[in-house]
C-alpha cells in the first residue's frame, strides 16, 4: 500500500496512515526522493501520526530519507510522533539523531520555513 | 476474556511482522498493561520478528500469558533455525548512535523488557525469550 | 498530633482494688480454658473476610509466638496489675493492623467473640457465686472495652490522621502538573523522591503536556529533588530526547552543585543538556529559545539574514 505524497507549493507532504511493511517503507523512501527531484521541492514533511509504534527499521528509514533528500537539496522534517511512541522509542535507544522533528503538520511547516529561510538568504 | 493463552505466529514474510506485533499488543492490552507499555511490547515484538526474517528467512514468534508469584505478564519467544549469531557480545552492544553493533535491536529490547534470554548456535539457530510483567 | 485521650498507664488508677481482685479470678478461668477460648476467637476471626485476609498473611509460627507473648503479658497484667506492657502491645498491634487497612469493626468481632467464650466458662466456674460473677464481668468489660478497644481505637485515630496526611502529600505530588507559563512554554517542577515509577509518570505527563499545549520549550526544574542519582539522570536524558521528538527543547534547572558533582563523579554525561542553576535563568533561556524561533518565522518570508537553523 503506497504512501500518498502530496505537493504543497515548494513542499512535499507524505502521510503515513497506518502500519507499513518494510517494503512499503522502502518504496516510500524511493518515491519521495523521486518526487523531490521532479518538483525541485525545498522540503519534505513526513507525517507519522498514524504509526502506533516506530521500531528500529522505521527509525533508520526516516534517517535515510532525511539524508537522501538532503543530498537532493531539500530539508526534511518528521512530524506527528505520538507521545507514547516517542517514549517507547527513546527507551529502545532510538533517538532519530540528525532528523528534525516537530509536533504536527502546522509546526512542521513553520519549521521548514525557518530552515529554508536561511538557505534562501544565502541564495540557494 | 482472553481467547487464548498462547499465540503462535509463523514469520515467513514481512506482513507477519505487523501481525505479530498487533496481536501481541492486543494481548498486552487484555492483560492490563498500560498503554505506554503496550507500545514497548509491540516494538520489542517487531524488532524480534524482523530479526528472524532478516537473518534466518523464516521462523516463529510465540506469545504467551505468564504467571509468577501472583503477577501476570506476557512472554515472547522468537525462534528460528537460521545461521545463528556468531558474535553474541557484539549483538548485545549498543550500536545505534555510534554505528557499531549489528543493528539487531537486541540491546534496546533487553532494556525495555523485564526478563531477557538469548540462545544462539552458529548453524543451528537463534532463540530469544523475553518477558514483561504487569506493574 | 492526636487529639485523643491517652489511656492512663498507672495501674492503680486503671482498676480499683476490687476490680483487680476480680481480674485475678478471671485469670484463673481464662488460663484453664485458654485453648478453647483461643479456638473460639480464631473461629470468629476466620469467619470475618477482612480478618481472614489479614490472618492469611501471618505464618503459623508467627501467630503462635504472638499468642504466647500476649498470654504472658495478660497474666502479668491480671495477676499483678502490670498493664503497661499489654497496653503498649495493643497499641502497636492496633497501629499495625490499621496501617494494613483492617477495619476497626473487625476488632469488635474478635473482642466480642472472646467475651462470649470467656463468659460461658466464667458462668460455669462461678455458678455458685453470682456476686462474684458480676464483679468479674464488670472488670472484664472494662478490660475488653475501656482499655483494649479504646487503645486500638486511639491508634486508628492516629493512623487515620497519618494516612490522610500521606494521601494529601501524594495527591500534591501527583497533581504537580505540567504548568504552561505562556504560549509554547511549559514548566515541569519535579518535587520529592523520584523512583522509576514516578519518573515514568512524570515523563508521560510532560509529553502529553507538550502535545496539549503545543509547547516548543520546556523547563524541567529539579530544585525540589534532594538526590539526583544516575537513575534519575538517565531518565532525565530519556525525557529530554523524547521531548525533542515532539519538537520541544528542554532546559534543565535546579541541579545543585552537590548533585552536579555527584553526577560527574559517577560518570553521567550531561553535556547534551541545556542546564542553568536556578529556575529564573532557565525560564529566561527557554523564553529566548522561543523568541528566536518566532523571529525567524516572521522574518522567513523576507529572507532576512537570520541564523539558519538546520537539522537540530
Assign the CATH superfamily of chain A: STAS domain
Biggest sheet, spatial arrangement of strands of chain A: 1-2-3-4-5
CATH fold-type name of chain B: Heat Shock Protein 90
- Determine the N-to-C terminus distance of chain B: 20 Å
Topology readout:
The complex is a heterotrimer of chains A (124), B (135) and C (312).
Chain A: E1 5-8, E2 11-15, H1 22-39, E3 43-47, H2 56-71, E4 75-79, H3 83-92, E5 100-102, H4 105-121
Parallel strand pairs in A: 2-3, 3-4, 4-5
Antiparallel strand pairs in A: 1-2
Helix pairs in contact in A: 1-2
Chain B: E1 6-11, H1 14-31, H2 35-55, E2 59-68, E3 71-80, H3 88-91, H4 106-112, E4 115-121, E5 125-133
Antiparallel strand pairs in B: 1-2, 2-3, 3-5, 4-5
Chain C: H1 11-14, H2 17-32, H3 34-47, H4 49-56, H5 60-80, H6 84-100, H7 104-125, H8 130-174, E1 179-182, E2 185-191, H9 196-213, E3 217-224, H10 230-245, E4 249-253, H11 257-265, E5 274-276, H12 279-299
Helix pairs in contact in C: 2-5, 2-8, 3-7, 5-6, 6-8, 7-8, 9-10
Description:
- The complex is a heterotrimer of chains A (124), B (135) and C (312).
- Chain A has 124 residues and is of the alpha/beta class.
- Chain A has one domain: STAS domain (Transcription Regulator spoIIAA), CATH 3.30.750.
- Chain A has four helices and five strands; from the N terminus they run E-E-H-E-H-E-H-E-H.
- In chain A, a hairpin with a 2-residue loop joins strand 1 (5-8) and strand 2 (11-15).
- The mean pLDDT of chain A is 91.
- Chain B has one domain (6-133): Heat Shock Protein 90 (2-Layer Sandwich), CATH 3.30.565.
- In chain B, 37% of the residues lie in helices and 31% in strands.
- Chain B has a five-stranded antiparallel sheet with strand order 1-2-3-5-4, covered by helices on one side.
- The model of chain B is unreliable at 96-101 (pLDDT under 50).
- In chain C, strands 1-2-3-4-5 form a five-stranded mixed sheet, sandwiched between helices.
- Chain C has two domains: 11-172, Globin-like (Orthogonal Bundle), CATH 1.10.490.10; 179-302, Transcription Regulator spoIIAA.
- In chain C, helix 11 (257-265) links the parallel strand 4 (249-253) and strand 5.
- Chain C is rod-shaped, with a radius of gyration of 32 Å.
- By secondary structure, chain C is α/β, with parallel strands linked by helices.
- Classes of the chains: A alpha/beta (124), B alpha+beta (135), C alpha/beta (312).
